[in-house]
């Protein structure tokens, strides 16, 4: 019997001393007022969690606060930001159909950086094995979210529902980015900086 693949939540290590912290331009300070609605929506970070290819017509610029050492994998408002080395690695792994890399400009940087946009959403959360799951209910008065997860603690996935995916977000709890053991091992072997993994 073939051993089942393991899966991991991929996130950035916020405890690296002297690391940078990237900020997405959300226009919350009013700087986006007067822009067309389509351009203001560009910086709705949830768009990068919808599991679809995005057409981005306006340059995305990221600021740093506080300024620090660049990491090849980090997050800005929960959105994965990666260096060109990560893009090259994923291309070598043959994952072009599972991810979209959207170019971004990072303050003070001349090297290429990208948003990692996962293109697959999979209904795979194993409720029984999670520490706790809470759902949006009718009485919460959020019909747009009803039936989806309101909170998931101690996330576990049902590996038999994942299929052949190597990079994805779980349906109903898309704030999490999950990668296969294959991707985890490759990123570690490549020495990608900033990565942390938690088995799910």
Structure commentary:
With 200 residues, the chain is of the alpha+beta class. The protein contains three helices and 13 strands; from the N terminus they run ββαβββαβββββββαβ. It has helices at residues 37-41, 84-92, 181-190, and strands spanning 7-12, 22-23, 61-64, 73-76, 79-83, 99-106, 113-118, 121-122, 132-135, 149-153, 167-170, 178-180, 195-199. The strands form three sheets. The protein has a six-stranded mixed beta sheet with strand order 2-3-6-7-5-4. A hairpin with a 7-residue loop joins strand 11 and strand 12. The two termini are 21 Å apart.
Concise overview:
With 200 residues, the protein is α+β, with helices and mostly antiparallel strands. Helix content is 12%, strand content 29%. The chain starts with 6 loop residues before the first strand and ends with a strand.
Largest sheet: 6 strands, mixed
Number of strands: 13
H and E string: EEHEEEHEEEEEEEHE
Whole-number radius of gyration?
18 Å
Number of helices: 3
In percent, how helical is the residue content? 10-25%
Mean pLDDT value: 89
Label the structural class.
Answer: alpha+beta
Beta-strand proportion: 25-35%
Low-confidence parts, pLDDT < 50 over ≥5 residues?
Answer: 37-42
Oligomeric state? single chain
**Intertermini distance:** 21 Å
In order across it, which strands form the biggest sheet? Answer: 2-3-6-7-5-4
| Dominant shape | globular
